[in-house]
Amino acid sequence: MADKQPHLNGAYYGPAIPPPAQPRYRHHHGRTCCCCLFGILWKILVTLIVLVGLAILIFWLVVQPRSFKFHVTEADLTQFDYNADNSTLQYSMVLNFTARNPNKKLNIYYDKVEALAFYEDARFSNYDVITHMNSFRQYTKSSSPMSAVFSGEKVVILDNGQVSELNQDKSDGAYDFYVRLNFRIRYRLGDLISGDFKPKVKCHIKLPLANNGSETLFQTTKCDVDY
């Protein structure tokens, strides 16, 4: 006797479909560890940057460091003759400077100062204002005098335009000079002494030629300090 088929309600399309297999995830332990390590290092770096920035800010607010001030207080030009035939310049110029330390807590060591004199972008002389033989310490809120003597004879090549400017200055009775001073200084706070700083001071002066060796009137000129 044949088996009876079960009664089916509705449509029948075949056996039931099994549920889809769950995907298998691979654990990348090495990559995860690297990401964690990188994150930790990044946080440490950011923290160090913030702490250093705060330390610099606190130092700046407490110490309030300021650049020294520099002026040409006196100047005397007794000779400035140029021979275009052999390009020889004869000159004699003396400059007196004043350097002021405006800081309340920082002293300044002037280890070396060299002065370079230019006319029409041509350097004609240099002078060692401060050397290790006369270096000194400048205390807070104080001023110190310095001097530079430019004297001698030197071959200086001036083109036609520069010679024309020199003749015009000679006719006007005053010469335009540019003096640059190269510094090597250190700062001192208590028992702490900084490393070397090498600022440059730039002075533009207009100086008349003295007549018969008499001193000329000169107005104090402020110079620019560039770190």
From TrEMBL:
GO cellular component: plasma membrane; plasmodesma
Organism: Vigna unguiculata
Annotated keywords: Membrane, Transmembrane, Transmembrane helix
One of the protein's GO biological processes: defense response to other organism
Main subcellular localisation: membrane
Name by which UniProt lists this protein: Syntaxin 7
Cell location: Membrane
Bilayer-spanning residue ranges: 40-63
